[in-house]
Design a protein that fits this description.
The protein is mainly alpha-helical and 214 residues long. It has 10 helices and 2 strands, in the order αααααβαβαααα. It folds into 2 domains: 94 residues, RNA polymerase sigma factor, region 2, helix turn helix motif (Rna Polymerase Sigma Factor, Chain: A); 96 residues, Arc Repressor Mutant, subunit A.
Length: 214
Amino acid sequence: MTRTQKPTSMYTASELEQIDEDELVNRFRNGDIEAFNPLVLKYEKKIYNLIYQQIRDRETAKDISQEVFLKAFKALPSFKGGSAFYSWIYRIAINSSIDFQRQRNRSRVLTFEELPPDADDILQMSVSYPSPEKFLEDKELGKVIRKAVRELPPGQRRVFNLRYRRELAIKEIAVLLNRSEGTIKAHLHHAHQRLQGMLLPYLRNEPLEWHRET
């Protein structure tokens, strides 16, 4: 086992990969705040890259990365060790990225997959998602689709929105929700099927029994 009680500057890349993270966490929780430094060194690049993939701005990604480790530093005493340290800080990074995007109030474009083949003309349209605080006025189809998404079961709706509104990868959603990638894919598959059934009458100019005027 690699010794972890050594100056941070003396760690090689190979040693960082082999550090005993549980030991470092325990040392930190027992008052050795220097034990946090090797964890930062090991994961700072991964966390930065993760955030940059979501934000696409280098300086902002650096700032958010620093905030993530500051949050982790403050919260680590209450970390119960139910998951790996990286999974825990990964979720902090994802949530921080989502928070930033929410504050930036940027509209996202949602394109739907696997809708009925006779909907080709309508599928050329995209739905502009608004800020989380308030839905923007949009075309009739956009309103119908947003209402359909809100009719999904909670688990499917959350996964669907993370995938298409927040543009997270399957793996990222799995880590964020602490579920397997297979479970996330199943939620998306069932959400697609349910939306197909809900939207098909609209595409055929038929009444929508589930549609509620709100």
